[in-house]
Amino acid sequence: MSKWADLPHFILYEIICRLSFFDDVFIVGAVCKSWQSVVNSLEKPLLPPKCPWLMLAERERGNKERQIRSFFKLSNTKTYNFKLPELVGRKSYGASLGWLLTIGTDLQINLFHPLSKQLIALPPQPTFCCQYDGKVERMYLRKNFVSKCVLSRSPWNSITHEYDRDCIIMTIYGDKKLLAFTRPGYKAWIDVKSPTRCYDDIAFYKGKFYVVDCHGEVFVCRTDDDQKLEFKVIVPHPKGTKGTTQKYIVISSGALLLVSRMRGGPFSYLGGDRNYEENEFNNEDPKDDTEDEDAFEDESEEEEEEEEVEEEEEGGGKEEEYINDNAYLTIGFTVLKLKRCTQAGSKYRYKWVKVHSLGDQALFVGDNSSVSLSASSFNGCKANCIYFTDDHKLNYAYTLEGGGYDIGAFRMEDGKIEHPYPGESLSFFSTPLCLLQHNQPMKMSKWADLPHFILYEIICRLSFFDDVFIVGAVCKSWQSVVNSLEKPLLPPKCPWLMLAEREQGNKERQIRSFFKLSDTKTYNFKLPELVGRKSYGASLGWLLTIGTDLQINLFHPLSKQLIALPPQPTFCCQYKGKVERMYLRKNFVSKCVLSRSPWNSLTHAYDRDCIIMTIYGDKKLLAFTRPGYEAWIDIKSPTRCYDDIAFYKGKFYVVDCHGEVFVCRTDDDQKLEFKVIVPRPKGTKGTTQKYIVISSGALLLVSRMRGGPFSYLGGDRKYEENEFNNEDSKDDTEDEDAFEDESEEEEEEEEEGGGGGEEYINDNAYLTIGFTVLRLKRCTQAGSKYRYKWVKVHSLGDQALFVGDNSSVSLSASSFNGCKANCIYFTDDLKRNYAYTLEGGGYDIGAFRMEDGKIEHPYPGESLSFFSTPLWYI
């Protein structure tokens, strides 16, 4: 096992710096703990999102389901699930810079970063100065107490690895929508002195906080000193604006925008004290505030056509007439821009001008920090649009299923509203919001040119096959490197149990689930190539698949490489009479093993030196093919009814139903035939299923015993054995040396292959009740006819065997996390008898303990099918 935790951090840093997009970092951080620690150490503002993610409402099912939070990605319109137990039962707000502010019914307020899983406790709700009058339910406080939150900077210092006390967390809170702030480490929230109340939104720009009240009046606050933290006006509200329209303040390309949101419907009233009498402003004259005067300089030298708001009674803008049965619904937006006033004698140095177009910008408003992004730089965003979520939380109670339906994208050019999220995500407290990083313009870094040797170094340290799925999913560049690797260099951490195909809609059937022994979790992968096809583990990470079209393929789930093999009708021996294609799909192939990888990573073509060996048909005969061949070729053999195949040191070994083992050299297709190397053990039964496993250089014969009314194995297992007429096996010196003993100790020999097993007591059609294991050993007895003999194996030591519809494999339990030593892991491969079950095969899965003959069940669930039962993916 290679140690790659010591991979130099500068290499990972180089890669992550090229991952310009926030959403890709989720996947990088999920590769392993070492990568996660590097991701955590980065300054988060360096990692902007590819496009904002819509964090959907909390699921209202069991505890495990509620821990899964779904994120809808604008760039590809797909939904991704992440386990975030820290958000369960908590109302969340996008607090800028990728952080969320959360509050639960315990009234504890936290900052939480979904990427790094960093959590910072802030002062709880009772420490705010102004509380509601009378007793208020905690659930109400969780949903309504906080209205908005914005950060001045990241609250976490990646250098000192502790929270940053220079960070200011500014909130709008309470029924009067007042202002308060705190810093990491403070014990209480501090009210901010301000000339008004009923604030709607906050923004932070160039060291100052800007807030807007419900009438559109904008205030500014410096952040130099907590004792002097107060807001003062920089521009009055536009004439004619209404307190009934919700206001947002957005910094876009260095300009301050005032965005007003209009709703229609019987419950569109915004609530709060929005009709208060405005206090007379008594701070310093804003004209003396030269710093604020320069805050929003025009970047363009061209003079825009100005349409002053004073000329219109309303704030101007396009809106749709409300025609809907919902309690409330957004019908339009208006946008104003703060611009320097050059008119002589004007009382104010700024004025509002109407904005008809946002150009390349896209605005995001709702329960997140209001942000403007360049649509051309962020894939998935549409230019000249305002994306909004449902933040009308005071009125969720007037809906049938909660808030969350009022989500859309308002097009500035024609006033129409689109709905980028096609689904529905409703809740009475945790409605969807946009997860945002920051609104700084960015250049997309080109990291496709990252030297392949760096990726190769990393992947070589990923000793475990299952981690490669995640690495390959990071981006196309990484996927191409993964595809170019020789697959045998990438062993699995532990075999994955590929579960049965789902029998729901087409989209559901494309998702194949894999159960991972090492962490007992299930992972889903989109594999449409496997839909409706019976699969067999063909070794080296490849699957052999056959469908009702009778086409046979090799498929590698990691690289998505597919190689077409000759179809079923090209086999020599077929069933007599007409046989249904569904029956052939399930039963025609019994086993498949490869001699080597069928894909050449150097030539990027299939490898004709690869031999694909199969057991097939009702008589369980042998046939092989190579990539590029047009038919399957039968193999001359002295018997029939074979149970298993193994490949070792250039030769194929097969075992028949009586335990007789044969070997075949692969030098020449014309001379490809099997001959016996050891006779069957005395007393073995044809009614026990046989597997042949190469374990630590030794050949093991594993016999599987089943009980139950339908445990009969089927096939021609009671045939009269042909007289063996090949060469004397004693002359086969190469085969004699194939399985040398590594230990000098002589094991006790037993004539019977017998072994422990449980008595069958079960209502199932069949069930595994035990295993016996024999080992092939050099025979030193004088005068013996054979050079090998069978000896009973009482313990597998550190080894764990995996048998079933996969190539039979032995792994070191100490090297592969999740495997238990001295166990035989098995799946349900008695496919001829699935028809005698109620819901299909797949229930006969377990792990047989050699020390006491007991059977455990590592997979806790149920995965049944009449054709695509679970198998070990190795």
Characterise the protein shown here.
It holds the Pfam family F-box. Residues 270-321, 721-761 are annotated as: Disordered. Residues 7-50, 450-493 form the F-box domain. The structure is a single chain. By secondary structure, this protein is mostly beta strands. It has a domain at 51-272 and 290-435: Neuraminidase (6 Propeller). Helices cover 10% and strands 31% of the residues. It has a five-stranded mixed beta sheet with strand order 23-22-24-25-26, with no helix packed on it. Strands 50-49-51-52-53 form a five-stranded mixed beta sheet, with no helix packed on it. A four-stranded antiparallel beta sheet has the order 3-2-1-27. The chain is elongated.
Calculate Rg over CA atoms.
35 Å
> What is the typical, i.e. mean, pLDDT?
80
Low-pLDDT runs of 5+ residues are 44-48, 276-293, 298-306, 310-322, 438-446, 719-736, 742-754
CATH topology (level 3) name of the domain at 51-272 and 290-435 = Neuraminidase
What structural class is derived from the secondary structure elements?
A: mainly beta
How many β-strands, per DSSP?
Answer: 54
> What would CATH call the class of the domain at 51-272 and 290-435?
Mainly Beta
Largest sheet: 5 strands, mixed
Global outline: elongated
| Tally of DSSP helical segments | 12
> How widely separated are the two ends?
17 Å
Helix content: under 10%
Strand content is 25-35%
CATH architecture of the domain at 51-272 and 290-435: 6 Propeller
Side by side, the strands of the main sheet go 23-22-24-25-26
